[in-house]
């Protein structure tokens, strides 16, 4: 049985996950919001104190997010009902009611070359009977959800969308050459920060193709991997 339990997740964890369900909210924006408003009720209360719709729009638009400290921008949340934190948002999926789905970031599959490794990945997943879904992931390259099984409702032309529960593992995949590039341009530290703060308890940093040619010495890359292992309290490298 899979359930969203208050004993497993803190209010902060659940709030982050709620924010990430809203259109236009990335992990950086979610973290900026909860730094100012640590719980849904505090944000809802702030909205209630606003005297106009314009004031509501400006409530979070000037919050800074990301390493470059950009503005969050026009209000993402204009209706406090979208952040209802009541128990009605919690649900339980029993073993016969869901399937496990691997979510693959679309950057891991997009390629115009017919024999590319990205297309090979899809073929291998199908060959091994893995149920997967290609979508835009704001954090990581791979994640898993428990998706509710649904049946066709008479009179409808398509299946209704099943509810999903995000499972507590997420993977960021790096080849050694990409790891080298990400260290040089700063993405490595930003991605580690996002993984650590995403609210999932088991982030995994997967490094492949050790021994290939890179723009940084391999000893530097191995040290970066070791530092990730030793400083992360929640995940693995």
Automatic annotation (TrEMBL):
InterPro entries found in the cross-reference section: EME1/EME2_C, ERCC4_domain, Mus81, Restrct_endonuc-II-like, XPF_nuclease_Mus81
Residue ranges of every copy of the ERCC4 domain listed in the record: 101-211
Superkingdom of this protein's organism: Eukaryota
Subcellular location: Nucleus
Keywords assigned: DNA damage, DNA recombination, DNA repair, Endonuclease, Hydrolase, Magnesium, Metal-binding, Nuclease, Nucleus
EC class (word): hydrolase
Function according to Swiss-Prot or TrEMBL: Interacts with EME1 to form a DNA structure-specific endonuclease with substrate preference for branched DNA structures with a 5'-end at the branch nick. Typical substrates include 3'-flap structures, D-loops, replication forks and nicked Holliday junctions. May be required in mitosis for the processing of stalled or collapsed replication fork intermediates. May be required in meiosis for the repair of meiosis-specific double strand breaks subsequent to single-end invasion (SEI).
Record protein name field: Crossover junction endonuclease MUS81
Annotated source species: Strigamia maritima
């Amino acid at each position: 049985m899979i359930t969203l339990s208050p004993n497993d997740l803190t209010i902060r964890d659940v709030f982050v996950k709620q924010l990430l369900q809203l259109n236009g909210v990335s992990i950086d924006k979610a973290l900026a919001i909860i730094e100012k408003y640590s719980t849904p009720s505090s944000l809802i209360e702030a909205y209630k104190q606003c005297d106009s719709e314009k004031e509501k729009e400006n409530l979070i638009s000037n919050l800074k997010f990301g390493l470059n400290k950009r503005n969050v921008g026009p209000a993402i949340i204009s209706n406090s009902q979208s952040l209802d934190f009541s128990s009605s948002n919690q649900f339980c999926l029993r073993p016969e009611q869901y399937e496990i789905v691997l979510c693959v970031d679309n950057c891991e599959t997009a390629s115009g070359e017919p024999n590319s490794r990205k297309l090979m990945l899809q073929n291998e997943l199908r060959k091994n009977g893995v149920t997967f879904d290609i979508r835009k992931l704001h954090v990581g390259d791979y994640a898993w959800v428990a998706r509710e099984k649904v049946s066709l409702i008479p009179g409808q032309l398509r299946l209704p969308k099943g509810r999903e529960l995000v499972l507590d593992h997420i993977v960021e995949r790096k080849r050694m050459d990409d790891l080298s590039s990400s260290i040089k341009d700063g993405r490595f530290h930003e991605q580690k920060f996002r993984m650590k703060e995403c609210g999932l308890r088991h982030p995994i940093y997967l490094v492949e193709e050790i021994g290939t040619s890179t723009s940084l010495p391999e000893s530097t890359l191995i040290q970066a991997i070791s530092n990730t292992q030793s400083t992360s309290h929640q995940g693995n490298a």
